[in-house]
């Protein structure tokens, strides 16, 4: 297994002071930033696009930025985000007309590529694209909003994906997104995840460092 990564979702950050808040959460021990792009079409909420990613880079954020596209169409956004400084780009299979092509496009634009599965989306796409994946993201809530509760069926799905990754021999991260908290992160890791997105658990807390330290302590148990 790869070292665990904690990725705060800026969906729950202070958007009026985004640069400062991102800088702060990184100083408090976050490994990277998770950037939720919502289009009020694929998901019923609207957030931010590539100019905001670019602004974070211009502000001086050098940590990896993990762009989670909950938007359709996907391909034009891939190019925009790659230019804006994204490190990795993940998208939902249902949102792309040509999944294989989109995965290739992400790598061709110099970013790590990942496919996202909603809680009830079957894993069958994985039969065909393991060689084109740098990461697999399992949603543990329905996408669109922060602050929802972790869906327990995700644990079994994580175990299935962990097995597929290990059997494939490819170097693929297994990311989980939604309802990740101090009190469930160890169980999620035991099921096979190695990258943890957490929005409200971190940004709604008064002390980001304490939450991240507590999460790492749980992961070390
Ligand atoms: C949901 C987003 C998540 C969300 C996680 O659609 O993809 O990244 O912000 O938020 P929490 O950790 O609050 O569930
Ligand atoms: Zn996300």
TrEMBL record:
Top-level EC class as recorded in UniProt: isomerase
Active site: 36 (proton acceptor), 177 (proton donor)
Classification via InterPro entries: Aldolase_TIM, Ribul_P_3_epim, Ribul_P_3_epim-like, RibuloseP-bd_barrel
Keyword Acetylation recorded: no
Keywords per UniProt: Carbohydrate metabolism, Isomerase, Metal-binding
EC numbers for this chain: 5.1.3.1
Binding site for a divalent metal cation: 34, 36, 68, 177
Superkingdom of this protein's organism: Bacteria
Binding residues annotated for substrate, in chain numbering: 9, 68, 144-147, 177-179, 199-200
Cofactor annotation comment: Binds 1 divalent metal cation per subunit.
Catalysed reaction, written as an equation: D-ribulose 5-phosphate = D-xylulose 5-phosphate
Similarity comment: family membership: Belongs to the ribulose-phosphate 3-epimerase family.
NCBIfam families hit by this protein: PRK05581.1-4, rpe
Protein name listed in UniProt: Ribulose-phosphate 3-epimerase
Species of provenance: Exercitatus varius
